[in-house]
Amino acid sequence: MPPQAEPSDLIRRFTAAEHWIHRTTAALMGVVLVTALFLYEPSLAQLVGRRRLLVTVHEWTGITLPVPLLAGLASRAFRADLRRLSRFGPPDRGWVRAALLRRARQAGKFNAGQKLYASILAGAVLVMVWTGLIMWFTDLTPLTWRIEATFLHDWVALLIGALVLGHIRMAVRDPEARRGLRWGQVSRAWARRHHPLWEKKHPVRDEPQET
């Protein structure tokens, strides 16, 4: 359900376009990770039986994983958030220090942990796409390339799996953050608690007085 609050107590956090970019990317990532698990673990692969089908689904889902993000560049709000995620400034360094010392943290729209997660995941996805293409087109690449690509692909896949599980764990612990992504708005109290520097940029509008 959308946040239940007065309009003056809500802040717009994400647009509908950003919601669908996240949802589509999450769905593709889920398929990639599940098919990878079935392909990597023989006992699970035997449950399906059609390994060639798993390989095909895994390959095409992996190669289309960046598509929602690329299509999202048409959204001004999404481009603005990408710029925020790519900038690591003094407030972010302060956030890391405060997190290590378990103190109150100051963050803008995205905190340093979210920025690090997004940067590492983006780089890991690019590595996975590149190594996956090397493994896919076996007739065009030398054997040594394929061996090295397979090794790197497997280890980066484990890294992505750990990152995604951590991301899901954090999301489960913060239902309002999930509602903000789904419905686009969060309460001012939540924003002040988790992203105070961002909340300060959205002053409360004075209600018109009755005459």
Number of domains: 1
Whole-Å distance between the termini? 35 Å
By CATH, the architecture is named: Up-down Bundle
Radius of gyration: 21 Å
DSSP summary: helix tally: 11
SSE order in H/E notation?
EHHHHHHHHHEHH
CATH homologous superfamily annotation = Transmembrane di-heme cytochromes, Chain C
> Main sheet, how many strands, which sense, barrel?
2 strands, antiparallel
Amount of beta strand: under 5%
In helices, the fraction of residues equals: over 70%
| Structural class assignment | mainly alpha
Widest beta sheet: strand line-up = 1-2
Task: Write down the overall mean pLDDT.
Answer: 89
Based on CA inertia axes, which overall geometry fits?
A: elongated
Written overview of the protein:
The chain is an all-alpha fold. It has one domain: Transmembrane di-heme cytochromes, Chain C (Fumarate Reductase Cytochrome B subunit), CATH 1.20.950. The protein has eleven helices and two strands, in the order βαααααααααβαα. The chain is elongated, with a radius of gyration of 21 Å. The C terminus is likely disordered.
Record the SSE blueprint.
Layout: E1 10-12, H1 16-40, H2 42-48, H3 51-64, H4 67-72, H5 76-86, H6 90-100, H7 112-136, H8 143-173, H9 175-183, E2 185-187, H10 188-194, H11 196-199
Antiparallel strand pairs: 1-2
Helix pairs in contact: 1-2, 1-3, 7-8
